[in-house]
Amino acid sequence: MAKLTTEELLEQFAGLTLIELSEFVKAFEEKFEVTAAAPVAVAGAGGAGAAEEVEEKDSFDVILEAAGDKKIQVIKTVRELTSLGLGEAKAVVDGAPKAVLEGANKEAAEKAKAALEEAGATVTLK
Prior knowledge:
By secondary structure, the protein is an alpha+beta fold. The protein has 6 helices and 3 strands, in the order H-H-H-E-H-H-E-H-E. It has helices spanning 6-14, 18-32, 38-58, 71-81, 86-94, 106-118; strands at 60-66, 98-104, 122-125. The chain has a 3-stranded antiparallel β-sheet. The longest helix has 21 residues, at 38-58. Residues 38-47 and 50-56 have low confidence and may be disordered.
């Protein structure tokens, strides 16, 4: 019997009905003496705090604290980082402290912060 790749296994599971899949999970649990629901139960028990903690680390808001003395350059940078028009970007800069990006991943947030600081703005990540 040839060993199936992960992709081949997924294709096989995709062809099963929900009832067939449920029966497979039960048979798998019995055969290997595991419970597929255990990780879900653990995540449910302590998951609320843990999920928030993970979310906090993976999601950052880029906050423009002040535009500095190169306001026009900061407005241009805000436009480059967002899909905002000129007037909307100016409103963000004029309304500082204000969020430029919300829910960005760490890499995107750090790039945005570096770009804004290079333009002369004061920026924080939250």
